[in-house]
C-alpha cells in the first residue's frame, strides 16, 4: 500500500513538472497584443481596447506636504469576468500575463472594485477581459484615514503604560482575541471531515491561492452574510464572547511586573507600526517615530526643568490677590488646621509628654487644649477684640483728618 502511494505521488509530481516546463516553453514563443495607457487624475478610461490593457501611473514628487497622499483606481463599470495583474512596470505585467495565459492551472478570478497604487512610485496594472469596463484615477492629497491612523498610533503609544494595567482593556482585548481565535477551532473541526489524501492534493495544487480566494469571497459577500445570517452570526459572537470573558475572569488580569512590561512593549510596537504605515512617505514616518522615541525617553526631571524655565518663566501665571475678608478667613482656617495637627501630634505615641510638660509655663492650660478646649483664654480674647476695635477706630479718625486736610488745601483763598 505504501509503495503504491509513493508511486502514484511520483507520477503526479512528474506530470506537474512536465506541464510546467511545457507552459514555460510555450510562453517564450507567444506574442501578446496589448496597449499601454497612462492614468491621469479625474479622467475616465473605457475598455477593452486590446487583449491586454496595461495602465501605468507615473511616479509622484516626494514632498512633505504630500505626507498623507493616497492614490487609487475605482472600477465604475466592473466586467463579469476579468484578469487583474499588478506589477512595477509594463514588462512585468506582460510577463505575468504570458505565464497566466499559458498556465494549465489558471489563477482564481479576483474581483476588486478599488485598486490601490503607490503614491510616490511608478506602478502598472493590466486588465484582460472581453467585457466592457470603465475606470477612473483618484488622488487624495490628504487621506483623513491616514491622519487618524497617525493620531491613533501616537495616542496608543503614550497611553500604553496605562492600557497594559487597565482592567477594562484586559477584558476587551481578551474577548476580542477569543472571538477571532475561535475561528481556528472551527477550521480545525471542519478539517477533520476532509479526506486526508484529497485535502493534501488540493493544498499541493492550489496552495494559498484557494485560501486567499475563499477569504476574498467571504469579504466581498460580508454584507449579504450579515443580512441573511445575522441571527447565527450574533449567536456565534455572543457565545464566543461569553466563553472568552469567562476565561479572562478565571485567570484574572496580569499582575506580574515583567509580563506587564511585555504587554506594554507589544502595544507600543503595534502603535509604532501604525505610525510607520500611516504614510507612504517612509522617510517622514521614520522621522516621526524617532522623534516620538526620543521624547518618550527624556527624563521627567528634564521635562520639569523645561517647563519651569520655558513657558512659565516667560509668561508667569497671574497671581490673584486676596481681599481683607478672604485673608481673615484663610488665616482662621489655616490656624484651625495647625491647631488640630498639633493636638493630634501630642496625642500620638511619637510625642514625649514628660519632656514637653517640663518645657511649658502652664502645663494645665496645655492639657485642657489637648482635651479640646480653646487655646486662648477669655482675657486674651477680650484684649484682642479691644485692640482690634481701637485700631479700627484710630484708622477711621486718621482717614477723616486726611480728608479734611485735602478740603482745606483745595478751598479758594
From TrEMBL:
Parts of the chain that traverse the membrane: 168-191, 198-219, 231-252, 259-278, 284-303
Localization annotation: Nucleus inner membrane
Keyword Transmembrane: yes
Membrane topology label: Multi-pass membrane protein
Chief site of localization: nucleus
Annotated signal peptide: 1-24
Keywords: Membrane, Nucleus, Signal, Transmembrane, Transmembrane helix
PANTHER family, per database record: AT07567P-RELATED
Family membership: Belongs to the NEMP family.
Record protein name field: Nuclear envelope integral membrane protein 1-like
Amino acid at each position: 500500500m505504501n509503495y503504491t502511494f509513493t508511486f502514484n505521488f511520483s507520477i503526479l509530481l512528474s506530470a506537474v513538472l512536465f506541464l510546467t516546463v511545457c507552459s514555460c516553453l510555450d510562453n517564450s514563443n507567444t506574442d501578446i497584443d496589448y496597449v499601454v495607457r497612462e492614468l491621469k487624475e479625474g479622467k475616465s478610461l473605457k475598455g477593452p481596447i486590446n487583449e491586454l490593457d496595461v495602465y501605468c501611473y507615473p511616479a509622484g514628487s516626494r514632498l512633505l506636504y504630500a505626507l498623507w497622499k493616497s492614490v487609487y483606481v475605482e472600477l465604475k463599470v466592473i466586467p463579469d469576468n476579468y484578469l487583474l495583474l499588478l506589477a512595477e512596470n509594463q514588462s512585468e505585467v506582460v510577463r505575468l500575463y504570458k505565464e497566466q495565459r499559458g498556465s494549465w492551472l489558471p489563477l482564481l478570478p479576483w474581483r476588486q472594485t478599488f485598486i490601490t497604487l503607490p503614491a510616490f512610485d511608478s506602478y502598472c496594472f493590466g486588465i484582460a477581459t472581453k467585457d466592457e469596463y470603465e475606470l477612473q484615477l483618484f488622488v487624495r492629497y490628504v487621506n483623513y484615514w491616514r491622519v487618524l491612523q497617525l493620531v491613533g498610533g501616537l495616542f496608543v503609544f503614550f497611553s500604553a503604560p496605562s492600557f497594559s494595567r487597565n482592567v477594562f482593556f484586559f477584558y476587551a482585548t481578551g474577548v476580542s482575541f477569543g472571538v477571532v481565535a475561535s475561528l481556528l477551532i472551527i477550521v480545525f473541526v471542519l478539517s477533520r471531515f476532509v479526506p486526508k489524501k484529497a485535502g493534501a492534493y488540493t493544498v499541493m495544487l492550489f496552495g494559498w491561492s484557494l485560501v486567499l480566494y475563499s477569504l476574498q469571497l467571504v469579504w466581498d459577500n460580508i454584507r449579504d452574510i450579515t443580512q441573511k445570517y445575522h441571527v447565527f452570526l450574533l449567536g456565534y459572537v455572543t457565545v464566543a464572547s461569553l466563553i472568552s470573558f469567562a476565561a479572562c475572569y478565571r485567570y484574572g488580569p496580569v499582575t506580574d511586573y515583567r509580563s506587564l512590561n511585555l504587554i506594554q512593549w507589544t502595544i507600543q510596537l503595534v502603535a509604532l507600526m501604525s505610525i510607520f504605515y500611516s504614510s507612504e512617505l517612509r522617510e517622514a514616518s521614520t522621522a516621526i517615530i524617532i522623534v516620538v522615541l526620543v521624547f518618550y525617553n527624556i527624563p521627567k526631571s528634564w521635562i520639569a526643568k523645561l517647563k519651569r524655565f520655558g513657558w512659565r518663566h516667560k509668561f508667569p501665571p497671574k497671581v490673584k490677590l486676596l481681599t481683607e475678608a478672604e485673608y481673615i478667613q484663610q488665616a482662621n482656617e489655616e490656624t484651625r488646621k495647625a491647631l488640630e495637627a498639633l493636638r493630634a501630634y501630642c496625642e500620638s505615641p511619637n510625642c514625649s509628654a514628660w519632656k514637653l510638660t517640663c518645657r511649658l509655663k502652664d502645663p494645665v492650660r496645655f492639657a485642657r487644649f489637648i482635651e479640646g478646649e480653646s487655646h486662648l483664654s477669655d482675657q486674651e480674647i477680650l484684649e484682642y477684640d479691644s485692640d482690634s476695635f481701637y485700631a479700627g477706630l484710630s484708622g477711621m479718625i486718621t482717614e477723616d483728618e486726611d480728608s479734611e486736610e485735602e478740603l482745606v488745601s483745595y478751598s479758594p483763598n
